[in-house]
Specification:
Strand content: over 45%
Radius of gyration: 16 Å
Oligomer: single chain
Number of helices: 0
Order of helices and strands: EEEEEEEEEEEEEEE
Largest sheet: 4 strands, antiparallel
Number of strands: 15
Helix content: under 10%
Strand order of the largest sheet: 1-2-3-4
Distance between the termini: 45 Å
Length: 180
């Protein structure tokens, strides 16, 4: 059975559910990410994440570690971690010249990929020594904006859909992350 819920009259540009589908993170075509919780018969906004300065274009909620990654038109990404019932952001420097368009955690949540209008894919991973998220770019020629990314269950292969009607599969192997 399909339920219809009215959350806003504004368009929802991106969203992601938590592991048990009781919370949803969404962006209403602006620079804020709002987290809603279903209580009783309606959704109520319990958190508002406000670090982005441009429109949020991608959200993914990691189910294993309960982390949210967001990206936006401000060419940045943030990893949000819940600590003491507050979401704490960590800035990810993507080193791109145009807007980030999409983001996706890999299945084991050790890294994530960000597609961009700069025709790049940034693969970001956590570096515990410096407590930050550096990124590496996939250096294959992409001729247009990356509109979607998704991971293979092996955490190495990455599929990307672009606006030139092509889909490509890349290796996103990072020796600092992969345990072989």
């Amino acid at each position: 059975m399909t339920d219809i819920w009215r959350i806003s009259t504004e368009p929802i540009t991106c969203h992601s559910w938590n592991a048990d589908h009781t919370h949803v993170a969404l962006s209403l075509n602006d620079q804020f990410v709002q987290i809603y919780k279903r209580s009783g018969g309606k959704w109520e906004c319990i958190h508002s994440l406000s670090e982005h300065t441009g429109r949020v274009t991608g959200i993914d909620w990691g189910h294993r570690y309960n982390r949210i990654v967001t990206c936006g038109a401000d060419r940045n990404a943030y990893v949000w971690t819940l600590q003491d019932n507050k979401w704490k952001p960590t800035l990810v420097l993507l080193r791109i010249q145009r807007a980030a368009t999409c983001v996706r955690w890999c299945p084991n949540e050790s890294k994530f990929a960000v597609g961009s209008a700069a025709r790049h894919i940034s693969v970001c991973y956590y570096e515990a020594d410096n407590n930050w998220w550096p990124c590496k770019h996939i250096k294959k020629p992409i001729r247009s904006t990356v509109l979607s990314v998704d991971w293979h269950p092996n955490n190495v292969l990455l599929a990307a859909g672009t606006s030139d009607f092509c889909s490509r599969v890349f290796s996103a192997y990072i020796k600092e992350v992969e345990k072989t």
